[in-house]
Amino acid sequence: MPDVTDGRLPHISTVIGNAILFEPKPVWELPMDFASLVNDVSRLFALLEAREVDYVLVGGIAMLSYVEGRNTEDINLIVSLQSLKNLPEITLASQGNDFARGQFHELQIDFLLTANRLFDKVRQQYTTVRQFVERAIPTATVEGLLLLKLYALPSLYRQGNFARVGLYENDIATLLQAYRPSVEPLLDELTQHLSDSNMRELRAIVHDIQRRVQRFDQPNK
Questions:
Q1: Among 135, 184, 204, 219, which is least packed, fewest CB within 10 Å?
Q2: DSSP per-residue codes, 113-152
Q3: What is the pLDDT of residues 9-59, one digit of tens each?
Q4: Tens digit of pLDDT for each residue in 72-100?
Q5: Which residues are CB-contacts of 29 (< 8 A; sequence separation ≥ 6)?
């Protein structure tokens, strides 16, 4: 795994706490013990370390380690199903082949399971270590985040989930504009995980996103 990155990265507890407090919702939907929720973040990562869980941070918190302006109320991790079975402190609310959702005291956690070949590939080959305020945390690289978001887009389009499509496309455009990664190798990787029809759709989406980034980059005339 590469060396820990330099620089000041987000305080995960603060990010989640602010997202919950400032997201409009009825007062009865707020956590019963907000201070406990904030402490749960540190306790969760201490537990993962103590159990020697091989995990990778993804999702909104991982995005915030690379770009500003992202907001999220939960933790997203790539883990194996066996690892979850070794964490009885986490109560699973749902579980499928690729995803699971759990609760650690007041903290909600979404899991991407390594039974999915792409998720496991990101865990193995697209991971670095980012130094958050709480601790150094294994985190998906820019390319890893792009793979996960691009992989999800065709399904989100089929579901008609306009809000999440917009969120994911904005994340992709922001990463492309800020870091200039090579996109074609990522699309080549995704051909092993998506159907031909999904890849045609995805390439068209990526082309549109790249055009938006190019328009943004053009100086004002």
A1: 219
A2: ETTSHHHHHHHHHSEEEEE-SS-EEEEE-HHHHHHHHHHH
A3: 666 766 776 655 545 444 445 444 666 777 888 899 999 999 999 999 999
A4: 768 999 999 999 999 999 999 999 999 99
A5: none
CA terminus-to-terminus distance, the chain: 45
Q: pTM score, two decimals?
A: 0.87
- Residues 199 and 184: their CA atoms lie apart, in Å, by 12
Q: How far apart are CA 138 and CA 83, in angstroms?
A: 16
Contact (Cβ atoms closer than 8 angstroms) between residue 98 and residue 119: yes
Count Cα neighbours of 196 within 13 Å in the Cβ-side half-sphere.
Answer: 0
Tokens of 19: 């997202």
Q: What is the CATH number of domain 12-140?
A: 3.30.460
CA torsion 164-144-185-172 (nearest 10°) is 30
Q: What are phi and psi of 192, to 5 degrees?
A: -80, -10
